[in-house]
Amino acid sequence: MFNIERNGEEHRKLSYNDSNCVGCGICTDVCPTSSLRLGPLVPIARGLIEMDLISVNADSCVFCGLCSVACPFESLSLEINGENIKKMGNYPVWEVESKVDDEECIYCGRCYSVCPRDSIIFERNLPDSVSLIRGEIAIDEDKCIYCSFCADLCPAEAINITNKPTSSVDLLNNSIEVDLSKCVQCGVCKRVCPENAIRQICSTCMLRDEIPKPEITGNTFIAEETCVNCSWCSEICPVDAITVTKPFDGTLELIENEADEKICKGDSCHACQDVCPCNAVSIVDGKSVTNSDFCNLCGACITACPQDLRVLTRTDMKLNNINSESWNEILNSIIGGK
After folding, report:
1. Is the pTM of this model over 0.90?
2. Are 76 and 16 a contacting pair, CB within 8 Å?
3. Could you count the other beta carbons within 10 Å of the beta carbon of residue 302?
4. DSSP assignment string, 168-182
5. Helix (H) or strand (E) holding 103
6. Taken in order 230, 233, 239, 242, is the CA torsion positive or negative?
7. Strand, helix or coil at 89?
8. CA angle 54, 58, 59 (to 5 degrees)
9. pLDDT-based confidence at residue 85 (cuts at 50, 70, 90)
10. Are the C-beta atoms of 308 and 262 separated by less than 8 Å?
């Protein structure tokens, strides 16, 4: 993480947030003064080195803001007199999003469980199960022999048997209790009791029309500052409540050349898998395989591949409002082959 500043007629501040960076190298590609440098991506991703993915030469940086607007992942930001240039209206803006439709979301939590960047904030509020179950249960302690069959077999762990000796010779002073907040009125305890000491009546089925329908509430929120628009969340959502717009259209291919001995060594290398921020790369039959459904075409794997076997072709990008001719030429260089 770094912050560099320049004072003059305008106060300009360039900030870098390493937690958002994916190591794609787009910022280094577009920097007109070569002031940005990409660090050793693979060792950093593997935790072998603790350092930022991007470093800057503050002496040569001209604070133009190209790196800031070119970054699809909000890792770099340029402020002019305290205002982010992306909010000024006359600078390019990425039209990407990962959005949850609150009205459609059923709070299943599947998106939360698969997000590779921990960018989803998920909260689910369930009703008290006691309010959904009706029934009666009682244990006749005069008949109970404290065999613990009921406690051991209770699927809800609602029965507790406690030994309470009052003297060294009285080791059989037991008690048995049913935790009604856990009991599901299944009747297992009644059926297994050898002394018929348990009376249990489930009336949930008979009273089902009187029991209110369970109301499940919650909140599912995607943090834009760390999201990389990989679409894991939208692909796994069972009710299509999530919309993801990726920053690029295009293809990513693995091209081997046996004549030049350029062959993927996925099992022993797996550098692409280690650096992929989308968890889109897997090793299948010893080869690297990228799932295009989850790839955001950032290009980090291209930089990481020691064999130069991966070919990235971007056909379009969602960066709009490019008004400068010089900037248009530089920023459109992001599209194409790599």
Report:
1. no
2. yes
3. 19
4. SS----EEEEE-TTT
5. none
6. negative
7. coil
8. 140
9. very high
10. yes
Please state, in angstroms and rounded to a whole number, the distance separating the CA atoms of residues 140 and 106: 43
The mean pLDDT value for 37-42 works out to 95
- Spatial separation of the C-alpha atoms in residues 288 and 45, rounded to whole Å: 17
Reported as a single tens digit per residue, the pLDDT across 134-184 is: 899 999 999 999 999 999 999 999 999 987 655 555 556 788 999 998 999
Instruction: Measure the CA dihedral 174/180/183/186, to 10°.
Output: 90
CA distances from 265 to 280, 286, 287, 306 (A): 17, 7, 6, 10
Task: Give the closest residue to 134 by CA, choosing from 186, 199, 200, 185.
Answer: 185
Contact between 252 and 292 under an 8 Å Cβ cutoff? The reply is yes
Mean predicted confidence (pLDDT) in 54-81? 95
Given a contact cutoff of 8 angstroms between Cβ atoms, the answer to whether 57 and 48 are in contact is no
Domains, the chain? 2-91 (3.30.70.20), 129-202 (3.30.70.20)
pLDDT value at residue 214: 87
> d(Cα 93, Cα 109) in Å, to the nearest integer?
31
Label residue 262 by pLDDT band (50, 70, 90).
confident
Distant-in-sequence, close-in-space partners of 36: CB < 8 Å, separation ≥ 6: 27, 28, 54, 55, 56, 57, 61, 67
Q: What is the 3-state secondary structure (H, E, C) of 117-137?
A: CCCEEEEEECCCHHHHCCEEE
Helix, coil or strand: residue 25:
coil
Place of tokens 């004549």: 259
Which DSSP letter does residue 257 get? B
Question: Which residue type, as a one-letter code, is found at position 270?
Answer: H
Residues in CB range of 42: below 8 A, 6 or more apart: 271, 274, 275, 304
